[in-house]
Amino acid sequence: MTSLKSPTTPTKSFMATAAAAATAKAEDSAELEKYLAVLATKAATIITATRSSGGRLTSNCNPQPATADWFGLAIHEPASIRTEVKELTRDHIPVIDKAFGVQVSAVLPTHELIPLEYWWLWFDAAAVEKDAHIRSTVYNRMTILLKSIIVVLRASPVNSLIRQNDYFKFTHKMFVGDPDVRNLQSVAKTFKIGPLKTPYGAVYFSGACRETAFSEGSLVSHPLNEQLPRELTPRRSVSETSNIPVRLGVSNKMGERNSSASPGHSPLLDSRRPSETGSPRQIRFAPTGGPAHLIEAPPPKTFAEMQYTGAFASPCKSASESDDETYEIPDRAFADLVSYPDDDDFGSPRYPVQELLKATRPKSILKDVPSKATTSDETTAGRSDGMSPKSAKVSLLAQLSRMDDDDDGFEEDGDLDGYSVRPAFAPPKSQVGSHDLAAFYHQCQAAPNSLKFLEKKGVTVSRTVKSLSQKLVGMESELLEFDKFVDDLRVVGGESSWIMTSSP
Amino acid sequence: MNARRHVIDLTCEARQVEDSVSCLFHTILFHRSLGKFRFREDKLGNQTIVIGTVGFDDVDCTAVDLTYVRCSSTELRRAVAKEVSPFATALQQEASSSSATAAISLEFYEKRPRGLSVMGYDKLPWEIWVIKFTLVQSDTESERLRYRYELAPVLSDKMLTIVDVMNRYEYVPKNPHKDQLDVVFDISFPDVQPYLFRISRNVESSNPSSQSVSKSMGRFLRDALEL
To answer: What are phi and psi of A87, to 5 degrees?
Structure first.
């Protein structure tokens, strides 16, 4: 009886303490889950903003915020990111139950996706720190982890590719579960931040980026890649991937979207054979040999290879067709719409202009055919084969071509009533009388490349300076040849002077 | 307590020194900066701290193909540039004459009273980052480009080293009381609150021994007389 009266009995106090501890533990667990959910959202925001086109994420310091920002960092996630993270993690605890991450891919003009990076948060229940306080210690550590994520994203080689690129587009895709880094084909660099220890386990942040498309020994080139000459390209070995905690064989849940191209189907991702045509044309994949090895840079691109293909323009010539640093001047636009002496429409002997101008009285070489409307050969242009009187005009060379030996180049008086001129863009003789707009349109489409199309878009001063540096490097490499040439000249000159002085 | 000392060795051209130092120092300061503390007292007299928000922005290096992150605080940026720019300029002048080595350090410390409040404070460092430079000269454009391309991955690796150190959660001074905030933090900046830090530079040229001794003595006297 007495044991039921007093509230301070050991049994009840123990039960109260245990209940309080369980409550505290449940609260801590809930706090940790909440912190991890926010951490995942913030990390996704940082990654997507940094890896978007342009790759900048800036924010201002706020010494007096109205409401305290999570983790003391000015990272404002858009509603779309928040919604997407919630949707992906609605049926489990983010990071603890399944890893959460973001895949960054490059989008080719053919809408194919090439995965470039994987970044993900994962949990290891084995590493525990029981004394870590969730609301202060773990929270502060998460702040440092977020700052480290911001720094590491800039340290990745892909960051320079994104910042300097205006050709590719980049996209991201969130995922849960461990990523399959085999999609990267060859991993150049891996990152791992952690452990962030909690009473329930440790949080890690890992990353893996693709080797190609950015390393110095890159096998992938695109039109804006300005590569060093072969002898200047530093050799770097591919880092190993031993510290990636990748559990292969675990299926990934890619959410509702799964738009990435399968590695085995796209010819651009087939490392066994180089892509001949490529898309864009300048991208080539060299066959990879296997494990990590030193990679040499491909030979530098020629000017012809770096051309853009303008609208309605014919495809660029391949490297084998085009000469180094030369450019074939195309014909004038719409040249075949203008008649020339070599036109086959005339098909009559040609006379040099000098002979034609010998006469003391120059004749009027231009005649108005419609005004005369005669069947005389002297007044009709070229052959009288279907040319309507209204449209038939006499060109200078057509008139001259009809001169025979008896013709002293003078017209009879009275015939010079007018003149006829073939207008610009007039159809050739064979098409006189047919106003074929379609033919004109097709000829417009087949116009040769204009020099304007060769100008690179988005050329900045820094890029121009860079290109100048590249050219200077090329010139310096030729200095040795010139020096040798000059030395040879001196030797030859010296010998000749010796011969001259020694000759009697 | 012994301060943690981290030494970073770099080999680069003289014109790349400013970018390299700025990149590494701002990466460190970004991790070691908090928002401004504001103390509030509720109706019950309990004091709470509201911490401000730290912003950041990207910086593209001019002499290196690299981008780094720093706090978007103008005053903090000026404070770092005030020490780094003269160091880089002095190195460029020394490099033109002969090969030079130099070092610059970023030191985090906390103040400890010397005994009587009149005697001032001692500066006890708890973390020191030293960057040692070995300068090279490039005679041709090809060499200049080579150093430009090669330094970027080296600096990236150093940034990752800094990140690794920051996430070890080693000793960091605890948040002090409201009245002793300036013992641990530098409260002179209006928008951020980094831990107390100072930047020291040392340029060694033809006569390294005499210069280092004089500079060390000068620093000792300066610290001793500082109130």
So the answer is: -65, -40
